[in-house]
Every structure is written in structure tokens, then in C-alpha cells.
Write a structure and sequence with these properties.
With about 130 residues, the chain is α/β, with parallel strands linked by helices. It has a single domain, classed as Oxidized Rhodanese, domain 1, CATH 3.40.250. Helices cover about 40% and strands about 10% of the residues. The protein is built from six helices and five strands; from the N terminus they run H-E-H-E-H-E-H-E-H-E-H. It is globular and about 35 Å long. The termini are far apart. Residues about 1-15 have low confidence and may be disordered.
């Protein structure tokens, strides 16, 4: 019984360590404002086929499947904040957890993702 409780506590602690908190997310509105003002780099981690539906102007397009090979494109400098965006926030949230494990401290994810961006009717452009 004690081993079972200890195992449950360890699992709970591990889950807590790998789950983003409120400080790791940014609202869609805040992301748009910070990106348009040049305060952050917005990285769209959707796959290339998803980019065809439209992307945020001047966003960096870095598909999640290419991150292991192109991770160096993500600034690690704490003075250069980065926002990750995907379609619904699930992949960007998971990617944030992984990047934080690798030492990135300047990264947050966009709550709602591109699906909510589009639902608001905000502008998108064709990918380059």
C-alpha cells in the first residue's frame, strides 16, 4: 500500500513538472499585439500542409516535425521572447514543455492557436 501511494505521488510530481502553467501561455489578443509590435518572435509549428490555410504575416514557419533538425532557429536568448502557435494549442503546449526541458526560458504558447485566430477573422497570408 505504501509503495502504491509513493508511486502515485511520484507520478503526480512528474506530471506537475511537465505541465505548463499560466505563466507559459499568452492570450490570442496579447500574442497578436506583441507580434505586431515586434516584441516577440511568433513561430508557427503547424505542418506545411496546415500553413497552406494561411499564416500570420511575418511568423516564422517551423513545422513541429522539423524542430529536431532546426531547433537552432529558435532563439535561446532570454532577451528575445518567443511565442509558439499551432492550430489549437495542443502541439505548441507540448513543444513548450520539451523546449523548457532543453533549457529555453523565453518561450510561451498561444492559447487558442490558429483555429481561434481564424475564427476571429484576423488576417492571414499565404505562406512563402
Amino acid at each position: 500500500m505504501i509503495m502504491k501511494i509513493a508511486l502515485l505521488l511520484v507520478c503526480a510530481l512528474l506530471a506537475a513538472c511537465s505541465t505548463p502553467d499560466d505563466a507559459d501561455k499568452v492570450s490570442l489578443e496579447q500574442a497578436r499585439t506583441e507580434h505586431q509590435s515586434g516584441k516577440v518572435i511568433l513561430i508557427d509549428i503547424r505542418e506545411s500542409s496546415e500553413h497552406l490555410t494561411g499564416v500570420v504575416q511575418d511568423a516564422v514557419l517551423l513545422p513541429m516535425s522539423e524542430l529536431p533538425q532546426k531547433q537552432s532557429l529558435i532563439p535561446k536568448d532570454p532577451a528575445q521572447p518567443v511565442l509558439l502557435i499551432c492550430n489549437t494549442q495542443n502541439r505548441s503546449k507540448a513543444t513548450l514543455v520539451k523546449l523548457k526541458e532543453l533549457g529555453y526560458q523565453n518561450i510561451r504558447y498561444v492559447e487558442g492557436g490558429m483555429s481561434q485566430w481564424a475564427a476571429k477573422g484576423w488576417p492571414v497570408v499565404a505562406p512563402r
